[in-house]
Q: What sequence folds into this?
């Protein structure tokens, strides 16, 4: 795939390089001094040792390709495993990863959803929604959980990280060979491929993304295989098998990360439109993608009742404000005030606009160079194959890097904690290959060995500080975390209720199939387990402690009655309409927190689903908080009116609502709160609902 217009390719390469400087390297912080020192020393050594350096290509190319890739793959797996065991303590690092593992566990049992024990509100969690069938669903697409599921069956789910690390090395090698072949430089392409694999082993981004159970590394693997296959198809290898593999990879990306999938579809379509592999290849690509797209549609239908509504869209409609806060694009309605209050507060009064989008894009792009290469300015080598070599096939890779970077400018949330620019990690293999091809460009001739040595030295040196700070940060973050399932096994607990405050530990350990009502893991806000203990009075109660320890709680059986902490239904079991809801702290409330209803106006409402443990005749009331910004709400319990709640008071206080007599079954109930106005003295329509209480 040689360039037919070298001048145009070179011009586009120069523009792309300047564009990347303006995005990622426009500030002095993008040029760390330590990198210049490493660059200067390594350049000097390479020139002094030039007779030795010129043999580097021969040394790197000496091992058989399979042996080189195999050894590097083993090294990559070992690095991922070390980070997993030491920095992350063999547990997921983020709540996203915990939910992915929960979804993988469901798929391993032949389901998308999970049946929660009774009463269900004890098992509500972030990133979980109740589907139309009453099962609990994780909000993420099913592609990545599908990859984890086989290792869940084997009982080693975290091993997926080292497995993906191996796959990424193989994908890099495959992509490098395809690019070299398409560029007409197979020998130079093989050298660049091997150098790219070596610099990738030093990457902190690679280590963290493969160790934690996040989907970005899988997408990086699939994107590399898909583009390699598309280049080979365009080069004349039009076999049905290869086309099916390309379609399978593209479909799997779409079923894992939709935005990444759309960008990859555009990139693959561009290559195919250029080289026109024929209708037969396109048919087999469609056949390969169909099963994964069907899987995505099936999960969305099960979780939301709609074939086309993404689960994340449904979740943020229930859990955040404004309802459209998670959409891609710009506007005052973009930015989730509950999920990301800090970043949203910095957006300003007009919300997420082009100015903020440019800032977030720069934040990600600036971090990408450190994540992947240690020293961000090394990214400039990625444009050398275009500017110097006029290589159109390298232009395809550059275009994909820019496309994903700019596409994620439509998403308001930037870099995160230890992960850096994790949203851009799917282009990792392309970045490593481009940079390596720039360092060992054929125009360098005998200096290619020196270029390889300098790149390797600077990348390894630059990675030292990110490795030190980010693995230490991850280890500190994991210090208080416990593996709930391992803890119960070590303590010999074969029956009991284990309560935890850790959302991630709960999500990654929750498995009602295995526990079968004998062992129950649940979240607790100090009093939310009352109904759970009433439903399971014979189970002992335990408290999860840091460092995989457990404490036995000697508590008396709760007296007859009802205590439903309404905030525990959020966000999994609530359905707001025209208002926002969230769990909020409140002094004096039972459990120390309440369900806050905000952004309301007359007519707005919320349905709160919950279950009670023991049937009976009860005197029932709702505890809530009065205050100067509270509104008036009509309440209904199972379709029957309760006394209205009048929330205004000059001072804040927790108040018992009027009592009514009700017969309550040990089953599912729904409390509806509908805004009907406010006291003239009130400044708002908020409500702070604490608990539904019943006495025999």
A:
């Amino acid at each position: 795939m040689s360039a037919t217009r070298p001048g145009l390719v070179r011009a586009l390469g120069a523009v792309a390089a300047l564009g990347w400087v303006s995005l990622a390297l426009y500030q002095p912080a993008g040029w760390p001094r330590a990198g210049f020192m490493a660059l200067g020393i390594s350049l000097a050594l390479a020139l002094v040792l030039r007779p030795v350096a010129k043999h580097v290509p021969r040394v790197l190319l000496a091992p058989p390709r399979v042996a080189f890739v195999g050894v590097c793959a083993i090294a990559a797996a070992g690095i991922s495993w070390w980070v997993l065991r030491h920095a992350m303590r063999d547990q997921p690092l983020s709540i996203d990863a915990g939910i992915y593992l929960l979804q993988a566990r469901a798929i391993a049992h032949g389901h998308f959803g999970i049946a929660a024990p009774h009463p269900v509100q004890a098992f509500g969690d972030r990133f979980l929604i109740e589907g139309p069938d009453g099962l609990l669903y994780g909000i993420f697409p099913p592609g990545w959980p599908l990859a984890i599921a086989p290792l869940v069956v084997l009982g080693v789910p975290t091993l997926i990280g080292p497995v993906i690390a191996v796959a990424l090395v193989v994908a890099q090698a495959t992509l490098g060979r395809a690019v070299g072949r398409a560029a007409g430089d197979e020998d130079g392409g093989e050298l660049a491929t091997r150098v790219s694999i070596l610099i990738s082993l030093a990457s902190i981004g690679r280590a963290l993304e493969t160790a934690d159970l996040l989907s970005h590394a899988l997408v990086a693997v699939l994107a590399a295989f898909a583009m390699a296959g598309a280049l080979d198809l365009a080069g004349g290898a039009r076999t049905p098998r290869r086309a099916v593999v390309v379609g399978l990879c593209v479909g799997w990306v779409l079923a894992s990360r939709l935005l990444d999938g759309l960008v990859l579809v555009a990139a693959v379509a561009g290559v195919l439109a250029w080289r026109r592999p024929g209708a037969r290849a396109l048919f087999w690509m469609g056949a390969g993608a169909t099963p994964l797209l069907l899987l995505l549609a099936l999960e969305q239908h099960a979780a939301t009742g709609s074939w086309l509504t993404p689960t994340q869209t449904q979740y943020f409609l229930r859990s955040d404000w404004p309802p459209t806060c998670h959409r891609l694009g710009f506007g005052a309605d973009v930015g989730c005030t509950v999920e990301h209050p800090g970043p949203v507060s910095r957006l300003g009064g007009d919300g997420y606009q082009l100015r903020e989008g440019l800032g977030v894009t720069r934040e990600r792009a600036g971090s990408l160079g450190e994540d992947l290469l240690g020293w961000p300015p090394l990214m400039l080598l990625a444009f050398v194959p275009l500017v110097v070599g006029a290589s159109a096939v390298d232009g395809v890779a550059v275009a994909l890097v820019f496309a994903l970077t700019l596409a994620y400018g439509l998403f308001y949330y930037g870099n995160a904690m230890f992960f850096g620019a994790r949203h851009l990690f799917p282009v990792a293999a392309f970045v490593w290959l481009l940079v390596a091809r720039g360092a060992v460009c054929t125009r360098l001739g005998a200096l290619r060995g020196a270029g390889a040595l300098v790149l390797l030295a600077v990348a390894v040196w630059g990675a030292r500080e990110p490795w030190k700070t980010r693995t230490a940060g991850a280890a500190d973050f994991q210090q208080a975390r416990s593996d709930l399932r391992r803890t119960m096994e070590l303590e010999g607990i074969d029956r009991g209720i284990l309560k935890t405050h850790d959302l991630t530990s709960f999500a990654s350990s929750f498995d009602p199939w295995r526990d079968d009502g004998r062992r129950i893991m649940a979240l607790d806000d100090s009093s939310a387990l009352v109904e759970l203990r009433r439903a399971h009075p014979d189970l002992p109660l335990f408290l999860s402690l840091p460092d995989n320890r457990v404490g036995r709680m000697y508590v008396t059986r709760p007296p007859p009655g009802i205590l439903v902490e309404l905030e525990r239904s959020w966000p999994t079991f609530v359905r707001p309409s025209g208002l926002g809801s969230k769990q909020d702290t409140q002094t004096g409330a039972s459990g120390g927190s309440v369900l806050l209803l905000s952004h309301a106006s007359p007519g707005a409402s919320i349905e709160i689903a919950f279950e009670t443990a023991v049937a009976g005749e009860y005197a029932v009331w709702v505890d809530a908080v009065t205050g100067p910004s509270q509104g008036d709400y009509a309440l209904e319990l199972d379709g029957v009116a309760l006394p209205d709640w009048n929330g205004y008071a000059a001072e804040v206080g927790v108040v018992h609502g009027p009592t009514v007599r009700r017969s309550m079954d040990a089953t599912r109930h729904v409390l509806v709160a509908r805004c009907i106005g406010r006291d003239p003295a009130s400044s708002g329509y908020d409500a702070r609902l604490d608990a539904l209480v019943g006495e025999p």
